[in-house]
Amino acid sequence: MSLNKLLYIETFGCQMNDRDSEIMGQLLKQVSFEATDDMNAADAIIVNTCSIRGKAEQKAYSLLGALRKKKKENPNLIIAATGCVAQQEGKTMLSRMPHVDLVIGPKHIYQLPALFERAAKQKKGIVAIDDASPFRIPLFLPSLETGLPHKRFVTIMQGCNNFCTYCIVPFTRGREISRETGDILCEVSHLVAGGVKEITLLGQNVNSYGNDQPKETRTNFASLLRRVAAIKGLERLRFTTSNPKDLSDELMCCFAELDVLCPHFHLPVQSGANAVLKRMNRKYSIESYLEKVEKLRGYCPEIVLTTDIIVGFPGESEDDFAATMGLIEKVRYHGAFSFKYSSRPPAKSCDFDEIVSEEDKSRRLALLQCRQKEITLERHKEFIGQDVELMVEGQSKAAHGQWAGRSDTNHIVNFHCQETLVPGQIVRVIITEACFNSLRSTLVKL
Ligand code: 5AD
Ligand code: SF4
Q1: Using the 8-state DSSP alphabet, how is residue 261 labeled?
Q2: How close is the Cα of 417 to the center of ligand 1, in Å?
Q3: Cis (ω within 30 of 0) for the bond into 113?
């Protein structure tokens, strides 16, 4: 391939996709594709898709559809669809979007350079989505030249075995596959040696890390956290995401034990009603969830909890919804991502009856989001007057002329500073003001 080709990647969805996009960019750099932010200048465009809700899938299709014109103008342009929609749709995507050259599932991204080479020669669409079994997430050391200098994601597992009835993930990302512990430690050490200060371990259900490994040699998630935390030079460790049913005492204890483990836990509850949780196949009750929340706060009183909630799941009654509203009052989450239920074939809930009307879904979502916003602000106000350590992110995007840092509790905090700061630098501030999405502060120590 000739030198100086330009690659544009549009990433939708979760942090797993962010990490996959980073890997794809790095792989293609090895075959002379430079990253560009300008889609119009690109010789190749990757649309890394998400299919978690109908809206996400529509977004991917609408961008891919818009690329038809570009392909017409420049027949040598390579267009690739990757991620969950690509995996799910395969050939169907090619027939709907014949201008797309490549449809590549998440397990096939490591073959990207060879697939691109083939696509450049062959004028027929290529589909790579077959289950590449036995699949092992390879050791692929991230480039330190590109990407954020101070914080990175490290994938520890892929897929999910839980089959929550609303969820498409087990169908797009397949069954759980844990990465080799040695590979994970090697990747984190490599990043930290290169100056990275914060690592987020990623997986659809990190709490079940290791469950697919032989019992005798298995490392569970708590042990993995302890081993990663021991890597010298690492300052902050986070992870996402967890199913509450698998939250063990041993893991909770890590929040008391490990200094570098940040006091923030994203613990998706989905609903406050046991009847709904049962139909969702979540395998926990609200009582056991609340018990775990209490225990977690016992181990780490300052822990910040965030969650995901779905409203309008089939059969969700007004009483069920009221139970969810009651739950957010009880837990007083620092933040919540909430969504209207979206039917995602072939997930099981697509066949459930007692569909909640669009109108009821919208009303419930608005009520939930309005109250959660107030609770979030109340929670933010609790920080006023506190002396907090921030990791500098860069210039603030929202507060003009200010710097932005992130607290260990995962809050964005803005502050004034005349000096030039670098991402990853630690500063101390006193929190002075609470807003809905961020906090304001005064710098006390550089
Ligand atoms: N409809 C609405 N929300 C969903 N989520 C997952 N599947 C669906 C769906 N079919 C939400 C869940 C999950 C988050 C990542 O997306 O709350 O935790
Ligand atoms: Fe989907 Fe449930 Fe697995 Fe999360 S735990 S990815 S919601 S099936």
Answers
A1: B
A2: 40
A3: no
Neighbour count for residue 235 (Cβ, 10 Å): 19
Any atom of ligand 1 within 6 Å of the Cβ of 271? no
Give the span between the Cα atoms of 273 and 269, in whole angstroms: 10
Query: Considering only CA atoms, which of 200, 257, 203 is closest in space to residue 234?
Result: 200
Closest ligand to C-alpha of residue 266 is 1
Model pLDDT for residues 57-102, shown as the tens digit of each residue: 999 999 999 999 999 999 999 999 999 999 999 999 999 999 999 9
Q: Are strands 198-202 and 44-49 parallel, antiparallel or unpaired?
A: unpaired
387-445 to CATH, choices 3.40.50.300, 2.140.10.10, 3.30.70.1150, 2.40.50.140: 2.40.50.140
Token pair in block for residue 424: 């990853």
Fold classified for 5-128: Rossmann fold (3.40.50)
- Judge if the beta carbon of residue 339 lies within 6 A of ligand 1: yes
Closest atom, ligand 2, to C-alpha of 243: 5
Is there a contact between 431 and 407 (Cβ–Cβ < 8 Å)? no
Q: Whose CA is nearest to atom 1 of ligand 2?
A: 167
Q: Check the CA dihedral 174-50-148-235 and report its sign.
A: negative
Does 387-445 match 151-381 at the fold level? no
Homologous superfamily of 151-381: tm_1862 like domain (3.80.30.20)
pTM: 0.93
* CB 167 near ligand 1, within 6 Å: yes
Going from N- to C-terminal start, the domains of the chain cover 5-128, 151-381, 387-445
Ligand 1 atom at minimal distance to the Cα of residue 167: 7
Residue 22 has pLDDT above 70, yes or no: yes
